[in-house]
Structure formats: C-alpha cells, structure tokens
C-alpha cells in the first residue's frame, strides 16, 4: 500500500519506543482531551495493541488508528475479536486520506491474523459503514429491586493508588469469568483500569477479596457497571453486601448471570457500538458492553 504523504513516516507496533508512544499520548490529548499516559501507573498500554501511525519530521504523531485483541464471549462461544481505538488525525492533516489509509492497514492486519469479530465505538458511524460495520443497539437492564438480606460478606472499598488493591484487581481481571455468557469481554485489563481512573464516580469494591464490583450510586439510582471474579454473585448478594438500598437499579451489561428480573430500555450513549465479521451474525438479542470495557 503506498503511503498518502511522502513527508510522513508510517510506524507500526511502535509502543516499545517511549518517544513515539508520547506522540500518540499528545495526539489523543489534543484530539479527545484524554490522558492515556495514566496507563503507566497500571503497567503500561495493552501489549496486544497494533498501532498504525503517521509521524512528521519533528516526530509528532499526526494520525493514528489502533487495533487490539479483545477476546469475547458471544452466546456462550469464545470469539477471537479485535477492537479498534485511538482513531484521530490532526486538523491540518485531515481530508487527505490518512485515516482511510490507516484503517485499511489495521483491517488488513486483523483479517490476516484471523480475527472473527471487529468491534468499535464511535460517534461517526458513517465513517465505518462503508467497511461493513453495522450499529449494534445496546440496552440498559432495569432490574426489579431484589429482597436484601443481612450479608456476611466483607465489602472493602479499593483504591487504584494502593499497590495491593491494584494487584488484587489485576489478578481478578486475569482470572475472571466473563460477566455475561451472552456478550462480554473475556480479558480486558488495561481499559478497565483506565476507565476506572478516568471517572472518579466509579467505585470499586471488593467482596470477600475475591470479587470486585464496579458501580456508581447517586443516592437514588444504582448503576452496576461490572463484576470481576471467578464466580458472579446474584444481584441480591451484591446489593446486600454493598449495603445500598436504591430506588432504581440499572445494569450496564447483559445480566444473564445475575439471577434477577429485568426490563430493557434503549441505551442512548454518546457513542455507538459497531460490529462486523463472520461472528457478528451470532450476536442476537438485547445486550450491552460493560462501560468498564469501553475503549
Ligand atoms: C474522523 C477523522 C479521523 C477523519 O480523518 P481524515 O484523515 O480527515 O479522514 P480521510 O481523509 O482519510 O477520510 C476517510 C473517509 O472518511 C470520510 N470522513 C471523514 N470525516 C468524516 C466524518 N466526520 N464523518 C463521516 N465520514 C467522514 C471521508 O469522506 C473519507 O471517505 P472516503 O474513504 O469514502 O473518501 C478526523 O476528522 C478526526 O480526527 N476527527 C476527530 C476525532 C474523531 O472523530 N475520530 C474518530 C473517532 S471514532
């Protein structure tokens, strides 16, 4: 594939080089006002990342598009899935085909590596429809309030800044059972930690030091964002252990493992989930990707 601009250098798989990595940090800071350098305190960026970037003569990253491995469970089946993220082009370089070029390179790479499902989140679906992506509607599950009991599980608030808490969370993320058998990530450590650190309202609570609950509560509504552990407790067990008595419960992932009754409401997020690939047709029914797995 010829590069679209001869005065730019294409770099692939460049995260090992601290200078080029900082180029991407700056591009995403300038484009989305997010600081992905925070990942340094959690052990660095996702080692499965496949970044494709154009750099100018001063070493600035002017365009990037990355793929990464995001194994999923879809209707009980393990699926080799790829996520796409960090798509941005600096304003002065837009409209010249740089993004098209980088998307084509990333898609060719994941196709060659046998990925069966491609996923991305975007506020610009038209950009990706021409490559065969379609929008997957997401649904919040509003749960019937379960009967709470006195809990003998210890609930302990965790902090990402406490090294032993971080170690516990990372271990459980590695050993976890997917939060849903219908639609969930199997392994995704880096985005979970980054999402938790981006949003200070998210609470991470360890139950008996073998399950982490990611949640928020505004005094009335309880949002269950993720459950990380080798077994998934019921919604009643979780609420009893956290000692919250909400008026409304919103579950932000497919709730099939929570042993609860739900009604569905369309999720109106800022971005849309899009999919394509040979495993995409197996995705059926209402679902939601946990906000902790957003990328
Ligand atoms: C969106 C963005 C990456 C496009 O970069 P670019 O280098 O200008 O894109 P290209 O010139 O390679 O155009 C690629 C294709 O996308 C189309 N496109 C560009 N911007 C688009 C937009 N906002 N919505 C829909 N389609 C768009 C182009 O028409 C072109 O179509 P073609 O391949 O059929 O000719 C860039 O505008 C940007 O960084 N925006 C801010 C960050 C952002 O939104 N990133 C995407 C996150 S999902």
TrEMBL record:
InterPro entries the record matches: Acetyltransferase_Eis, Acyl_CoA_acyltransferase, GNAT_dom
Pfam families membership: Acetyltransf_9
MF terms in GO: aminoglycoside N-acetyltransferase activity
Keyword Plastid attributed: no
PROSITE patterns: GNAT
Domain N-acetyltransferase: 8-151
UniProt entry keywords in alphabetical sequence: Transferase
TM region(s), chain numbering: none
Gene3D superfamilies: 3.40.630.30
GO biological process: aminoglycoside antibiotic catabolic process
Name of the protein in question: Acetyltransferase (GNAT) domain-containing protein
Organism from which the protein derives: Rhizobium hainanense
């Amino acid at each position: 594939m010829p590069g679209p601009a001869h005065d730019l250098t294409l770099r692939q798989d460049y995260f090992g080089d601290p200078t080029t990595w900082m180029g991407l940090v700056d591009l995403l800071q300038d484009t989305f006002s997010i600081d992905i350098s925070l990942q340094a305190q959690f052990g660095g960026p996702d080692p499965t990342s496949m970044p494709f970037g154009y750099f100018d003569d001063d070493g600035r990253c002017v365009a990037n598009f990355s793929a990464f491995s995001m194994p999923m469970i879809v209707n009980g089946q393990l699926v080799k899935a790829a996520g796409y993220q960090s798509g941005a082009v600096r304003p002065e370089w837009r409209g010249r085909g740089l993004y098209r070029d980088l998307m084509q390179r990333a898609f060719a790479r994941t196709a060659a590596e046998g990925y069966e499902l491609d996923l991305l989140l975007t506020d610009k679906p038209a950009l990706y429809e021409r490559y065969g992506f379609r929008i997957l509607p997401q649904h919040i599950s509003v749960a019937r309030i379960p009967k709470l009991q006195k809990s003998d599980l210890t609930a302990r608030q965790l902090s990402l800044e406490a090294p032993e808490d971080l170690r516990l969370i990372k271990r459980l993320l590695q050993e976890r059972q997917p939060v849903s058998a219908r639609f969930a990530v199997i392994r995704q450590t880096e985005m979970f930690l980054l999402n938790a650190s981006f949003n200070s309202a998210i609470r991470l609570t360890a139950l008996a030091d073998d399950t982490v609950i990611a949640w928020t509560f505004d005094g009335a509504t309880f949002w269950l964002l993720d459950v990380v552990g080798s077994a998934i407790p019921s919604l009643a067990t979780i609420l009893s252990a956290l000692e919250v008595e909400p008026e409304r419960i919103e579950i932000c992932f497919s709730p099939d493992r929570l042993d609860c009754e739900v009604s569905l409401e369309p999720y109106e997020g800022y971005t849309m989930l899009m999919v394509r690939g040979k495993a995409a047709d197996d995705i059926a029914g209402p679902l939601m990707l946990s906000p902790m797995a957003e990328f």
